[in-house]
Amino acid sequence: MDSTAKRRTETVEDVVLRYSCRGMHILRTYMDAKFCRKAALKLLSLEKGNILLTTGFYVDGHAETDGPPGTMALAVALRKLGYHPVIVTDKYCRGFFEMENLEVKYMNIDDGRNAYENLLEQYRPAALISIERCGRNEEKDYANMRGASIKSRTARVDLMFEKAAEMNIPTFGIGDGGNEIGMGNLKEVIRAKLSLVPCEVEVDTLVISTVSNWGAYALAAYMQQIKKIRLLPKFKEIKKYLEAIVKMGSVDGVTKQQTLSVDGFPLEVEKEILDALNRTALLAEEEEERKAG
């Protein structure tokens, strides 16, 4: 198969699972074939209103570079579609989202269930979305990719997702390892196939990807394709955003270095994925128009 034909058969889901090295290709066999498209369609079916998005994974005193760029991109896309995004995070992401004029609620590390119930009461959200946010695992701890506890450095935003489920508020989760909010949907598989202690917090709709940012970009790509509105950021926009948050202290979650890389992948890979998503969304749109015509 030549490269052009390969591009035409590659789906958004294929793109975001490139370079899978932490078992997401294994989890894919337990997901719907078009799990990203399914999530995008569910987002687009929501009534216009507030959408609460959370991110910020603690790494050595900082928030890692995976999560905030995807959250920013998805929040801006939702705003263009008429929703009001609100970022819910903790102090390690301070300043990351105000530069995009997004509303932010900072939660304290020791905030309990009442604080999150009050937040839901205040905003009455149409949905909650988590992008690379640590959730409580089956040992009632919050652990990083190395299995070390970060409970004392992680605001318990997952409590908001559990309360939202009780209130029938739709919830979405994007993860890339097994310890993120939403991975509870596949906890049995993660425990058996990936040999780690999984997050136990579930969501209505789960998206997996090699890097969580890529899953968020995938939702923007599909919504762009469906709504015919430019929603997916170009690489230069993401690079500029990464430069800004790294200057604020954000670090690569794998290397722990304050560099323009994400989960150990150099900036060139981020460009490759964004370019491929832009191309794949465009090709899919052209194919739909061809069939309709």
Which labels suit this protein?
D-glutamate cyclase activity; alpha/beta; GLUCM_C; D-glutamate cyclase-like C-terminal domain-containing protein; disordered N terminus; inorganic pyrophosphatase (n-terminal core); 293 residues; two-stranded antiparallel ribbon
Summarize the structure in short:
The chain has 293 residues and is α/β, with parallel strands linked by helices. It is built from 11 helices and 10 strands.
Q: In this structure, how is the largest beta sheet organized?
A: 6 strands, parallel
In the CATH classification, which architecture applies?
Answer: Alpha-Beta Complex
Number of domains: 1
Contiguous uncertain segments of 5+ residues: 1-5
Spatial strand arrangement across the major sheet: 5-4-1-6-7-8
**End-to-end distance, in Å?**
27 Å
Summed up, the helix count is: 11
What is the percentage of strand-forming residues?
5-15%
General shape: globular
GO molecular function: D-glutamate cyclase activity
Domain D-glutamate cyclase-like C-terminal: 23-277
InterPro entries: GLUCM_C
Protein name: D-glutamate cyclase-like C-terminal domain-containing protein
Report on this model:
With 293 residues, the chain is of the alpha/beta class. It has a single domain (3-292), classed as Alpha-Beta Complex (inorganic pyrophosphatase (n-terminal core)), CATH 3.90.1640. The chain has 11 helices and 10 strands. A 6-stranded parallel sheet has the order 5-4-1-6-7-8, with helices on both faces. It has a two-stranded antiparallel ribbon with strand order 2-3. Mean pLDDT is 94; it is low at 1-5.
